[in-house]
Amino acid sequence: ILECEAEGHPPPSLTWLKDGVPVLDGESVRVLELGSKLEILAATVSDSGQYVFVINSPLELECQATGSPAPVITWYKDGKPVRQGEGLRVATNGRRLVVSRAQVSDTAQFQCIATNEAGDHERDFNVVVHGKILICFFIGFAVK
Fold this sequence. Notes:
Elements: E1 2-3, E2 13-18, E3 21-22, E4 29-32, E5 37-40, E6 49-56, E7 59-62, E8 72-77, E9 80-81, E10 88-91, E11 96-99, E12 108-116, E13 119-127, E14 134-138
C-alpha cells in the first residue's frame, strides 16, 4: 500500500500516476480512502515504476463590487494584469479569479480593481500556496 495525505479548503482532488499515466481502480490495483491510498494487489514486475501522488487544489478569489453603472473589474498578479490561460480564468463577469490547480508558483499578491464613473475601489489578496511534490518508487518483483 502506498499512502499520502493532503488537506485543504475546499478539499483537494487526489490522483495517483504511474509513470505519468493516471492509475484507475482495476483488477490489480485499488484506490482507497478518497484517493489517499493505493493498494497494489498481487504485485508483479509490471507494477514496478514511478508512482506520483498529485494534489489538485483549486483557488478562487472573489471581488464583490456594485454600482451604477456596473463597475468593470480588472485583476492583477504582482502588479501586472492577469492574462487568462495557463490555469488562470476570470469568471462571473470578472468577479471571480479561478486558479484551477494552485501550485507554489501561484504564491503572489493578487488585486482586483473595480472601476466606474464614480471612481475605483481595490481589494488585495496575499496568496501563499504551500505544497510539496511527493514521488513514491515501487519496485515490483515476482516470487516463483
